[in-house]
Amino acid sequence: MILICTDNGEMLLCANNGEYKAYILDSPLGKCIDSVFSFSNGFIICAENNFMVFQSEDGDERTLLSLEGDAIPITMRDSSSNQSFSSCTIRALTLNEDEDHIYAVTSNGQLVTAQLELTGNGYGANELTKFDYVLGPFHRAEITGLDVCVRK
Questions:
Q1: How many structural domains comprise the chain?
Q2: CA–CA distances in Å: residue 105 to residues 9, 18, 35, 55, 127
Q3: Residues 68-109: pLDDT tens digits?
Q4: Is residue 13, in this structure, part of any structural domain at all?
């Protein structure tokens, strides 16, 4: 399957050969879809700092994708952090091999992770998902240069 997403939240599902299959009715209309990642039964999208999980029924790729559960807000576990996700977007995301942890890169260069339930009836547990920094919040803006020294 190929999922085509637009900056105004529309989602179109196509077959692997590019043939149009369907318009996804559960699309987050009016919200910019910043990133998409496919997993074994569907897709995870990030739209305006909320994750949404779209799955086909029983893993059948011929069925339409439907939204599973509510949108998952991106909130940090450490509330004392100066960084707010309202001021940045998710540029890229991925899942680990077991599809139980999500990793995301923010627009200001931070790598964050959270545990995510994608199987069974555990979607309600995702409402309490909190993200952690993988390495810590070291910087707040883009990296503009890098240098190394041979001796020290």
A1: 1
A2: 20, 29, 10, 23, 20
A3: 777 777 777 665 555 555 566 788 888 888 888 888 888 777
A4: no
Please report the pLDDT score of residue 35 as a whole number: 87
Backbone angles phi, psi at 126, to 5 degrees: -70, -20
Residue type, 94: T
Is residue 1 included in any domain, yes or no? no
- For residue 97, the enclosing domain spans 31-133
pLDDT in tens, 20-59: 888 888 888 888 888 888 888 888 888 877 888 888 766 5
Strand order in the sheet with 2-5: 2-5, 11-14, 20-23
> In this structure, is the dihedral angle defined by the CA atoms of residues 76, 81, 83 and 86, taken in order, positive or negative?
positive
Residue 127 forms part of a structural domain:
yes
Please tell me whether the overall predicted TM-score, pTM, comes out greater than 0.85 for this model: no
Is the Cα dihedral 1, 42, 95, 103 positive or negative? Answer: positive
Q: Is the dihedral of CA 47, 53, 55, 59 positive or negative?
A: positive
Write down the number of H helices and E strands in the chain: 0, 12
